Amino acid sequence: MGKVSFKNVMRPAIRRLVNPKHLWRASRLNKGHSKEYRKYADTRLKLLAQILPSGFLNYGYHEDPDVRPEELSLEDLRRAHERYGELVAGEVIDIEGPILDAGCGMGGLLRMLRARGHTVVGLTPDRYQIQFLRETLPDQKLIQSTFEDMDAVGSAGAYDAVIHSESLQYLNLDAALKVMDTVLAPRGRWVACDWFRLDPETKGAGHVWPEFCEKIKGAGWRIITERDITKHALPTPAFLHMWSTKLGLPLLELLESDLERKRPGAHYLMSESFSNLRESCTRATDDVDPSSFLSSRKYVLLGMERVR
């Protein structure tokens, strides 16, 4: 493999940086670029699906919650994903009518439910996921939409169960509850498996657990199944944290140091970008810190029904 030349790598970027035409083009591309972009083209999830081809995009369920991250293999993660799917699927084992997998990802749970004889519809707003599912499951009924924006009236009472498998955290709960009341059959079941923040002051994704419980109770729901699986999900963030701290962040530091030593001018131009990237990577690493996750969040499997 030839030696990487920073001169060849940086020269095109610098040319564009000083060219007004390219600066204008960059400005136009950024204009109106919503923070919601990840819902519609999440390349990170696409990469994860290529690394872990189980079809599941979640933390999984590890039988041994005390397994060290150094001992985990990709096969261990695949098995944990399948056990997670079995856990969720077990909550709809007595459901005979159609099921909506809301936030179906790359189709892991869809395939599992289909194999068990369920009629299931997949919902995702992500265009990469939709494309992948159309290619790999051509006969699968799919809806490309967020849960809150789906055609609720057109699907009124259509589903005997709705599943949110690590997708609940992204929902606007007030809007989602209105949709749920419409699309779920009168005696239907709502299944969710996701993490929750224990304290409102905790930053990051996930609804605040006490607030979530209070809100769904006020909206006429009761929890019939509540299983805390936090410790069994924890080996996956521990695995991600280990590789980020031992490989990802050190590689970034090495790249910046090498650039500064070999091309100080290019480093000067990119120093702020490196700083922003380092900060972003550090935040992402902190989000999967296992000790922090355990103390500030709980991961729960929930089965919910309307109060009759």
Set down the secondary structure blueprint.
Elements: H1 6-17, H2 20-30, H3 43-51, H4 74-89, E1 99-102, H5 108-115, E2 120-124, H6 127-136, E3 142-144, E4 159-165, H7 173-183, E5 184-197, H8 209-218, E6 221-228, H9 230-233, H10 235-262, H11 264-287, H12 290-296, E7 297-306
Summarize the structure.
By secondary structure, the chain is α/β, with parallel strands linked by helices.
Give a description of the structure.
With 308 residues, this protein is an alpha/beta fold. It has a domain of 175 residues: Vaccinia Virus protein VP39 (Rossmann fold, 3-Layer(aba) Sandwich), CATH 3.40.50.150. It contains twelve helices and seven strands. The chain has a seven-stranded mixed beta sheet, sandwiched between helices. Strand 1, helix 5 and strand 2 form a beta-alpha-beta unit. Helix 4 packs across helix 5 and helix 10 runs antiparallel to helix 11. The longest helix has 28 residues.
Distance between the termini: 68 Å
List how many beta strands DSSP finds: 7
Approximate shape:
globular
Average pLDDT level: 85
The succession of helices and strands, N to C, reads HHHHEHEHEEHEHEHHHHE
Strand content: 15-25%
- Give the C-alpha Rg: 22 Å
Q: CATH fold name of the domain at 69-233 and 297-306, please?
A: Rossmann fold
Broad CATH class of the domain at 69-233 and 297-306: Alpha Beta
The major sheet is characterized as: 7 strands, mixed
Low-pLDDT ranges: 32-44
Structural class: alpha/beta
Q: How much helix, percentage-wise, in residues? A: 40-55%
* Strand ordering within the main sheet: 3-2-1-4-5-7-6
The CATH homologous superfamily name of the domain at 69-233 and 297-306 equals Vaccinia Virus protein VP39
